[in-house]
Amino acid sequence: MHLEINQLQKQFKTKRGLLTALQDISLHIEEGEFVCAVGASGSGKSTLLRLIAGLDTPTAGEILVDGVRVTGPGSDRGMVFQSYTLYPWMSVAENVEFGLKLQGVPKAQRKQQAAYYLEVVGLSTFTKALPKELSGGMKQRVAIARALASKPKILLMDEPFGALDVQTKEAMQQFLLEIWRSTSTTIFMITHDVEEAIFLSQRIYVLSARPGTIRRELQIQLPSKSNPQIKRHSTFQKYKDDVMKLLYEDGMQTNRICEVQSSVMGNR
User: Fold this and answer.
1) Which stretch is the leader sequence (predicted)?
2) pLDDT block averages, 10 residues each, the chain of length 268
3) What is the number of structural domains in the chain?
4) I need a surface site. Which of 1, 46, 70, 221 has the fewest CB within 10 A?
């Protein structure tokens, strides 16, 4: 699997004219990698993920998966959102099978695949449960199992742990690393949580505020990620300081631009 994005731009029409959300985005993700994009609100992170998923179309540039241009949604890209997006009237197993059903996978095969991935995420004893009977972390595990069941080339994750409490979030981060290692799934995840990005990923793309551009690409090399205590390691803290400095500088620059624009408007 090879994801390539070349000079991507996304603009939206507003009452005040065109709003540029993303500008000149170029990045790549290789097979089996875990890559994160981190940025503050307004950096276009979710917009970028929606474009890769084919849920929206770019204004300019291109997105390629294994050399094929993305023109819409496809089973080669699985998506996990922050909100669990589970169907409340369906059982856990039915939710996991849903994507396979849309693809026309025979009933016996989709039941087998759903059972396998529910085993992978540790929920094989909850197949008949409804989403309302599950905790937040369990719901997100179901969403991950549903995305994996279609065997996508790349798993796209839109701040999947943003709605969870701190303890559940840390447990889910560790769980996701285990899933990544055991399935060799390629993952591209966006987050505003700098520590989360450093802990999970092999590489980080740091996005600037609107318009979203890539400030820097960082290679993450840590002694071990088998224990969350690595977050206290000096190397981890150095990565965090570097990313936070980039985000802080970007925020200061954005504030100065806003002040200038306000001054210009006030003098008219």
Assistant:
1) none
2) 96 88 96 94 90 96 96 93 89 95 92 94 95 94 94 94 89 92 94 94 93 94 81 92 89 49 44
3) 1
4) 221
